[in-house]
Design brief:
It is built from 10 helices and 8 strands. It is α+β, with helices and mostly antiparallel strands.
Length: about 300
Amino acid sequence: MLGLQGARADPLVFSPPLEGLARVTLRAEWDDLLERRPAFRATLGVYGDILDHWARWSPARLTPLAWGAPECRQRWERGVPLLAEASVAIGADELEDLLGALMERLAELREDAGPALHRFAGAWDRGAIGPEALLPAPGRIGTGAVEEISGLGPELVTFLAYGSLRPPLDAYFASVRPHLDGDAWRLGACPFCGGPPGFSDVLEDGRRRLACHLCGGAWLYSRMKCPFCGSESSRDLVRLEPGDQDQGFVVIACKGCRSYVKELDRRVRWNGQSALVEDWGSPHFDLVAERAGYRRPIPAPITLLARG
């Protein structure tokens, strides 16, 4: 049960699953990043808490997706992410520890969300809402049921989904990650869960790799296209430079859809951390983009928690 106490294959293409050691490594990377950017330590403390909970998570009855390469590729060729046609069965008990701890932390950070969080917890305990309500759908995260029943804003629901679904979804897709090769998927959404890209890397060979923070997937994508709307117009795509002290980093924005994604050129900053850690640890880049009038489908770490 949920409870709120205080406030009622190819390494260039896919990422390894968040097994115990990998989750511990993420936490170590996070600590290292905060050593480089100590000014963010207090503001972004919730993300360290999330990584700690991920490290302690273990599957109960979750069965990984067992499709072979032909089954996966047949869907990718149709532009369909695997989750859209797979029968993922994430039990409520698989998610409760992760989700409950995150809701308690969110209630501390956002007192205005306390009543809605309590309504969410009550609906979850009654079985009116389950894990499927948080899964990605075309153009959004979740089915909308959480917002309707609880009154939580879409950004907070998305925050809860990202903070709780990553370990089970990563485990669910672990066996099919190697089936994705460089030319199997050409869309900006995640080929595994359908979620939006959370970060972009330029690899040593100049190719672009997008990362999904929701399930841990990664895939190659054209550097000349917006990953959100697909625009290839040079007039739409713009680069926002955060500053000289952050060499290798840039914000890629689209004038057409007004969306943006942060990008790290690994050829310049070869010792950068994983995509998730670099994204969570660079909220000042989100401020640059938001002040220029751009947005992202994933809640920006610092601006989300600051909103009342």
